[in-house]
């Protein structure tokens, strides 16, 4: 049975209630006032408190306030011989579960206590269940059981509850955003927004208005006040992807926001306090950029309080079979097909170098599923066709025609992979090779088109 703490300055009430609830099988302790109750709770946790409102040294309302700051799960039933509406309203506002007026019927109080404990139990079980579901949901999209991934999972679970900034590093296609979402999903901010922002996909002026918002009339097209991401994500998490691409002037403004916890919309003289956790990510070496003067050292230290490195696929090749099965299930369900992977295809996929990491493997499986008939088996030739198609498809239109959009998509994807491989994952340099702006390359990589 539950542990009860009865708090009342009248000894008679304490003794009577102790006998009543001990007879019901409860473990009962008593305290003559609020301070004694707080001292008791520090040594002996309770499941429910029955407290008088008016007591010397610390009254029941102040006790309730203290209890809620210590443990929000403790049930609290207030009682008073002066049962005014104001006392009840104040008690409920502070989180009391119920309120009963003296003198009361013992059977009525026993019913209130039983009902409160049951309600608290259900709330606690529901919270535990939601936490378990959130944990599963947050990690289920990160596939892998290798030692490196087990270490990554442990680190995610360890740091999720912290408030410190996180810097996620890793090559393109390793799943940095999935890691960021997992951290958010396992944190106490999970019910609040998670907003990703690609720092390399927008010009500096657009990035500033996106992050900080703007006031009506600040510039052409600003026909109304608009909050920025920092306001929209207050209480939640902002994921600053490709933070290495953030221009230096914006780095200064970002540093100020992180230091002070306040933002100012463009065109406004007022600052707004925000509470957001920052998770940043990059595929570049920020330490080298600091040495080159292209990234601020103070901002680097501010965003990298907790570093997380996501391993490339080549360093966890034992996860490839699980990833293959995961993506086959995903795209088979999406296409309403039943598709399996042949042994030769498994072997061929396992041997591939995967310069584009998990994202390249995902796109390969997506195409293989699309090209395999319902009930069929993905073979090695189907998988290899994607990798070699750029070099094997002739410029002459085949007699049976060609899926032009898929062909163009394949060519683009192959050239992007080559550019990223040649630049060791540096998207800015890869974009230059492809005569694209960084944000254009980012869009192609993320959309898969």
- Give the C-level CATH assignment of the largest domain: Alpha Beta
Distance between the termini: 61 Å
* Total beta-strand segments: 16
Total domain count: 3
Quaternary organization: single chain
Give the strand order of the largest sheet, numbering strands 1, 2, ... along the chain: 2-1-3-4-5
Helix content: 40-55%
**CATH fold category name of the largest domain:** Rossmann fold
Number of helices: 19
- Could you give me the name of the CATH homologous superfamily of the largest domain? P-loop containing nucleotide triphosphate hydrolases
Beta-strand content: 5-15%
Mean of residue pLDDT? 86
Radius of gyration: 30 Å
Class by helix and strand content? alpha/beta
Provide the low-confidence segments as ranges.
Answer: 389-394
Query: What is the CATH architecture descriptor of the largest domain?
Result: 3-Layer(aba) Sandwich
Largest sheet: 5 strands, parallel
Anisotropy-based shape = elongated
SSE arrangement:
Blueprint: E1 3-7, H1 11-23, E2 27-31, H2 34-43, E3 48-52, H3 60-70, E4 75-80, H4 85-93, E5 98-101, H5 106-139, H6 147-159, E6 166-169, H7 176-186, E7 194-198, H8 204-212, E8 213-214, E9 226-227, H9 229-232, E10 237-241, H10 248-260, E11 262-263, E12 272-273, E13 277-282, H11 286-292, H12 297-303, E14 306-309, H13 320-335, E15 340-341, H14 343-351, H15 357-371, E16 377-378, H16 380-392, H17 404-422, H18 427-433, H19 438-447
Parallel strand pairs: 1-2, 1-3, 3-4, 4-5, 6-13, 6-14, 7-10, 10-13, 15-16
Antiparallel strand pairs: 8-9, 11-12
Helix pairs in contact: 2-3, 5-7, 13-15, 14-16, 15-16, 16-17, 17-18, 18-19
